[in-house]
Specification:
The complex is a heterodimer of chains A (83) and B (306). Chain A has 83 residues and is an all-alpha fold. Helix content of chain A is 87%, strand content 0%. Chain A has one domain. The N and C termini of chain A lie far apart (44 Å). In chain B, a hairpin with a 5-residue loop joins strand 1 (13-14) and strand 2 (20-21). Classes of the chains: A mainly alpha (83), B alpha+beta (306).
Chain lengths: 83, 306
């Protein structure tokens, strides 16, 4: 399980790292940066659901925690990048 | 007792039954409250910008300032300053008007018009030409700084082939929202070239130099955009509205996301230090997502350039 946890988190960090590169490369392109955040927010929910499902500890409360945090990321992206 | 109650809001703990509890500021209702605050803030800023944008600050800048800053950057890089050219300014104004009328944000219009067509229609025959675009900046120095920080735009600004410059700063509505466009056009007129020099151009990066030679037919009547206020070089200034919207949004987003990040980080640190508490699964993932969002917001800039 520890091995799975490590791999899953490395995968997530890799995706977020790619997103950070996308944000860096699309400076002065607010729409592009917003899209990167939006895509990663959706990915985050999917990752969370899959990760906890495979761990066998997926609960409704946990799902909403991921959903709310991903929504915070999306709304922050809209607030800052969509003008 | 009061101290303990306050601590429970920010630190993971055991309740009276000995159950492991997360910080109350990280419970689902608390996280949902943060989301609601963000939604209300976003909607509020959107409505204020729509109904009374002056509340969010105003600023003024002119095409002359853009030209002066461009020339200052060239002089700093040991290049001769560019001469103001009225035809290029009119071409820039026409391009800006076209962008507002057809509602596009690109070097080439949806109808197939290139930047070069505006230049030739304004009566400027060139051997070299280039274009930089910017929108939604609140002052001239931010525009020029953004161009200087972008390699392709910087190469236009510091191109030794260019002799003339024309700039338009235009206010109008993009997609129903007030927007400020800056169109900067560079050129070297045919007359500025030695008689023996062929009309050959070097290809650019989409926003740079013209590839094909200037057409022989010179149209003397410049296009005037309708329904927009184009400020070509001169003393007149354009007023940019809602200049503080971005800084308010960025500040609020940074503050709230930093607060949530700090709470999760505190939970992780405390849990790892205390043997009687266990690290909730998902904390590391939440911290990684919030760190990514913090980076994106911190790196955000006010305007856009192409």
């Amino acid at each position: 399980m520890k091995h799975f946890d490590t791999l899953a988190h490395i995968f997530l960090l890799f995706a977020l790292g790619l997103g950070a590169v996308g944000i860096y490369r699309s400076r002065y392109d607010a729409t592009g940066q917003f899209l990167v955040i939006l895509v990663l927010s959706v990915f985050y929910i999917l990752w969370g659901v899959l990760y906890h499902h495979l761990r066998g500890d997926l609960k409704r409360k946990l799902f909403f925690e991921y959903l709310i945090l991903a929504s915070i990321a999306g709304v922050v992206g809209f607030l800052v990048f969509v003008r | 007792m009061i101290q303990q109650k306050i601590t429970r809001h920010f630190v993971p703990h055991h309740d009276e039954q000995g159950q492991h509890r997360r910080a109350q500021a990280l419970t689902l209702p608390a996280l949902f409250l943060y989301l609601q605050i963000l939604v209300v803030l976003t909607a509020g800023l959107f409505l204020i910008r729509l109904k009374a944008p002056h509340i969010l600050g105003t600023a003024k800048f002119t095409a002359d300032q853009i030209i002066a800053l461009t020339n200052a950057a060239r002089v700093k890089n040991d290049l001769p300053p560019l001469a103001f050219n009225n035809s290029l300014s009119q071409a820039a104004g026409a391009k800006a008007g076209d962008m507002f009328t057809l509602d596009y944000w690109a070097h080439n219009s949806p109808t197939g018009n290139t930047p070069w067509s505006f230049i030739t229609k304004a009566g400027y025959r060139y051997i070299f030409a280039g274009e930089n675009l910017a929108r939604d900046f609140s002052d001239a120095s931010s525009v020029v700084d953004a161009w200087m920080n972008s390699p392709s735009h910087r190469s236009n600004l510091l191109d030794k082939n260019f002799k003339d410059i024309g700039v338009a700063v235009v206010n109008d509505k993009f997609g129903g929202r007030d927007s400020t466009l800056v169109v900067q056009m560079f050129g070297t007129a045919v007359s500025a070239a030695p008689a023996t020099q062929p009309l050959a151009q070097t290809p650019g990066e989409g926003l740079g130099q013209q590839i094909k030679p200037s057409p022989e037919a010179v149209i003397q009547t410049p296009i005037t955009p309708q329904g927009v206020t184009a400020i070509v070089a001169g003393p007149a200034e354009v007023t940019v509205l809602a200049t503080k919207q971005f800084s308010i949004a960025k500040g609020a987003a940074l503050g709230l996301v930093t607060f949530i990040f700090a709470l999760f980080a505190l939970e992780a640190v405390i849990t790892l230090r205390r043997a009687d508490l266990r690290l909730r699964s998902g904390i590391i993932a939440h911290l990684a997502l919030l760190a990514f969002v913090l980076f994106a917001v911190w790196y955000a800039t006010a305007g856009a350039i192409i």
